[in-house]
Backbone:
């Protein structure tokens, strides 16, 4: 077990299987020392635990937890191409999308769920730039979607 996966276990978490693509794309690709993930939905065992808009059917607190799940799924996608999460030199950028009710403006707080998970698991290597974007709808009516870009060390 890698150090990152040991840290996940210490937090009571386990790295899930990579979520299969919903369309014609790869969950993650590597170019040079960088891995870019596709947008990761908060899938758990192949299903969305909740659907709808944040600020309507989904509370901001629920959405924050879903963003954590998205980040965990993103780490699984990174591992699928990097081979070992201990190769992460740093998380460079996180982009998060929040399916939002028309009057909901708390997207940054929702995305803190993903950012905080990366910090808990990776420490200083998890500190990153971020965008939090409110959108009308996401695939499968998911409330949140997160993608990450990481820089790897040499194998």
Residues:
């Amino acid at each position: 077990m890698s150090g990152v996966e040991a840290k996940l276990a210490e937090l009571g978490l386990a790295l899930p299987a990579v979520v299969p693509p919903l369309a014609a794309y790869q969950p993650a690709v590597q170019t040079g020392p960088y891995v870019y993930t596709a947008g990761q939905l908060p899938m758990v065992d192949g299903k969305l635990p909740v659907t709808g808009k944040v600020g309507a059917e989904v509370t901001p607190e629920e959405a924050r937890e879903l963003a954590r799940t998205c980040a965990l799924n993103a780490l699984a996608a990174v591992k699928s191409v990097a081979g070992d999460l201990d190769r992460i030199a740093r998380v460079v950028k996180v982009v998060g999308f929040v399916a939002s009710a028309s009057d909901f403006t708390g997207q940054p707080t929702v995305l803190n769920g993903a950012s905080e998970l990366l910090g808990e698991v990776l420490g200083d290597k998890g500190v990153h730039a971020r965008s939090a974007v409110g959108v009308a709808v996401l695939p499968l009516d998911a409330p949140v979607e997160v993608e990450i870009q990481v820089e790897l060390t040499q194998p």
Observations:
- The longest strand covers residues 88-99.
- The mean pLDDT is 97.
- Residues 60-82 form the longest helix (23 residues).
